[in-house]
Specification:
By secondary structure, this protein is of the alpha+beta class. 32% of the residues lie in helices and 25% in strands. α5 runs parallel beside α6 and α8 packs parallel to α12. The longest helix has 13 residues.
Length: 418
């Protein structure tokens, strides 16, 4: 079992290049099934979740050629399989995108109920509501999802809650349905827009992505194309927070500053120095940092995937602040790990109250989920002494070459493989 050994107290300095967006890639990979052609995806992050999804498509009969520079070519011309019940599919949360893609292509799909990080209840009822509105019959039995439609027809669909997964999944199914689909209360995240742009390049007709109303006019056929994945908003924010926490000076390259405005605003409010360029952001950590209050919200609000790293930064700040988690009800499990280091944090329901200015001391920590893993690494970077981070299987799902990137920034970090 791999673990990271981190020696704290070394400011991060230099440049770091951000990989392609994990959450966009996990929507784009199943979307290639709609094309009946050859798609070339560039800037795919080399992470466990992406590689696992590529393996799933290979098992379905998709021709896969891995080129250099994080580029993969997919040939879906001979795919005729709509059932995928293997263990890899079950482990992946994003495997539910196969429902929309396979419904759109074959009008049939059989997959296991998806897994993923245990950060709270993540039902797929809004996905099912959308599929049924389009004319599909969806059944859940013994952990298996079966969906079938004689024909998919456009419909008006209102999501009861803003859901990125449901928004993308319904888009995937609707692009080849007959007629017009209007999806209201849609998610506006950058990766929703990225998937819509990719679908349009393949011949779909999707308008309004990035707003809360998306209009999809169905098409009969779609074709292959070349496409480049957008930079990862969450990886960008993680290194920005790490730079501020270690009192460092880091140029975060290959980013879209517009996607990072909620993070940038909070870092400025805390006292960090931020300089924005066309496709990069420089973060200089300052002393002292001031505590703030944060509430996670759907985009363009503060991302739930960055509240754990932000909690570590708030431990370094002067004064008291709160983090209110409005997306997932079970996303504070990592707090016990920070308390072991000397952090002063009190969790009451969905609110964590953080008293900053407490010195953290190195110890053995467990990455309880993907983003908590990033928080544990940042905690190790700022703590006195050495910190050991275990359960790296979570971290490797979403961060490309994290220890190497940190080494390049001057961190003292090493991965031990037992």
């Amino acid at each position: 079992m791999d673990r990271l050994i981190i020696e704290g107290g070394h400011p991060l300095k230099g440049e770091v290049t951000i990989a392609g967006a994990k959450n966009a890639a996990l929507g784009l990979i199943p979307a290639v099934l709609l094309a009946e052609g050859v798609c070339r995806l560039e800037n795919l992050p080399n992470i466990k979740d992406v590689n696992r999804f590529i393996n799933i498509l290979e098992k379905m009969g998709v021709g896969v050629v891995r080129e250099k520079d994080n580029t993969v070519v997919f040939d879906t011309t001979t795919v005729d399989k709509y059932e995928m019940l293997d263990e890899e599919t079950q482990k992946m949360r994003a495997s539910y995108y196969l429902i929309g893609a396979l419904l759109g292509r074959f009008k049939n799909v059989v997959i296991p109920f998806p897994g993923g990080c245990n950060i709270g209840v993540r039902p797929i009822d809004q996905h099912i509501k959308g599929f049924e509105a389009l004319g599909a019959k969806v059944e859940l039995e013994h952990g298996i999802i079966r969906a079938h439609a004689e024909e998919l027809k456009g419909a008006s669909i209102y999501l009861d809650v803003v859901s990125v997964g449901a928004t993308i999944n319904i888009m995937l199914a609707a692009v080849r349905a007959k007629g017009v689909t209007v999806l209201e209360n849609a998610a506006k995240e950058p990766h929703v827009v990225d998937v819509a742009n990719f679908l349009n390049l393949m011949g779909a007709n999707v308008k309004g992505a990035g707003t809360d109303v998306i209009k999809i006019t169905g098409v009969e056929n779609m074709h292959g194309c070349d496409y480049m994945v957008i930079p990862d908003q969450i990886e960008s924010g993680t290194y920005m927070i790490a730079a501020a926490a270690t009192r460092g000076d880091v140029l975060v390259k290959n980013v879209i500053p517009k996607h990072l405005e909620s993070i940038t605003a909070k870092l400025v409010e805390m006292g960090a120095e931020i300089t924005e360029y066309d496709d990069s952001i420089r973060v200089v950590g300052k002393v002292p940092l001031k505590s703030v209050n944060i509430k996670t919200l759907p985009y363009p609000g503060f991302p739930t995937d960055l509240q754990q790293p932000m909690a570590v930064l708030m431990c370094m700040a002067e004064g008291s602040g709160t983090i209110t988690e409005s997306i997932f009800e079970n996303r504070f499990k990592y707090v016990d790990e920070l308390i072991k280091m000397g952090a002063s944090i009190l969790v009451n329901g969905r609110v964590a109250m953080i008293n900053g200015g407490k010195k953290l001391s190195g110890t053995t920590l467990s990455a309880t989920d993907l983003r908590a893993g990033a928080a544990m690494v940042i905690a190790g970077l700022v703590a006195d002494g050495k910190t050991e981070v275990t359960e790296l299987k979570h971290l490797d799902r979403g961060y490309e070459n994290m220890e190497q990137k940190l080494l390049n920034l001057g961190a003292k970090i090493i991965r031990i493989n037992d």
